[in-house]
Amino acid sequence: MSYAVDLDAGDYDPAKPGTSLALVYLQHAERDEQDVNGDKLRGQNDVNTDVAIFRLVRYVQIAGLTVAPQVLVPVIAQRGLGDRASIGRNTGLGDIILAAPVWLVNRTQTNTYFGVTPYLYLPTGDYDPNRAFNAGEDRWKLNLQAAGTVRVAPKLAWDAGADITFYGKTGKSFAGGRMTQKVGYQVQSSLRNFVSDQFDLRGGVSHAEGGDWTQNALINRGFTQTKFWIGTAVKPSASTQSFWRSAAISMCAMATRRMGALTCGC
Q1: What are phi and psi of 38, to 5 degrees?
Q2: Separation of CA 105 from chain center
Q3: Residue 250: which domain range?
Q4: What distances in angstroms separate CA 38 from CA 33, 113, 211, 236, 262, one per listed residue?
Q5: Rounded-to-5 percentages of helix, strand, coil across the chain
Q6: What's the burial of 76, exposed, middle or buried (CB within 10 Å: 0-12/13-18/19+)?
Q7: Total structural domains in the chain?
Q8: Higher pLDDT residue, 38 or 74?
């Protein structure tokens, strides 16, 4: 399951109103621990996850503020390794996400930006209560994020953000019985080094605290997760942009090391 909204470096660098974006994010994550109520399970409890997110964005201006309505479509592949190999693997369509960041600070002269974003998760993802791995969560979610970026040096940008997630109840067919969950939180930060106008190197860290969850009248401790990641981003050239009308394509590939584990599925 996904419990918070990962902030990619540069997400809060707005484009001009009228711009359309088509983006692809690729992420590989490795989890090497599993905790149950704060106790680490023995053995090799590895889970690897590969995620591709297809994102369409349109920048507009409303009441003098830049707004970017968008849709994100994730495709998720998960597999167990070591002592968890027996739970198998699964690939499927994740829950579709609708979002609309609003920039409250938009200072292009100094590359200083700050905005807030609501993310609405629709329960459209692939879900089967008989599987250990599922791309969908079988529930609605609402995440509220506040984040920004500032140029700390001519070739170095700092991004930081925090978010809070509200969870709906799972469906009646949810594995193990219907589940409710308290509010979750996440804070994250990253740095970008601009090698050129089209290419940058980036890295970041985030820490998330999932809310306690209740299932069959049993209260279970929420998860704790810390992540470190590194990656690159490539912006298109002017000739590539001519394929789209006021458009850009960005690709970000990240190798992620995740520490901590989920206490309610994967």
Answers
A1: 90, -5
A2: 23
A3: 20-261
A4: 11, 38, 13, 46, 11
A5: 5, 60, 40
A6: buried
A7: 1
A8: 74
**Does the residue 6 lie in any domain?**
no
Q: Kindly report, residue by residue over 126-150, the tens digit of the pLDDT.
A: 888 888 788 888 899 999 999 999 9
What is the number of other CB atoms lying within 10 angstroms of the CB of residue 133? Answer: 21
Q: Is the pTM of this model over 0.90?
A: no
Tokens for 51, please give them.
């995620």
Burial tier of 93 (Cβ tally within 10 Å: 0-12, 13-18, 19+): middle
| Residue 4 forms part of a structural domain | no
Spatial distance between the Cα atoms of 264 and 99, rounded to a whole number of angstroms: 26
- Please report, for the domain that includes residue 92, its CATH number: 2.40.128
First to last CA, the chain: 5
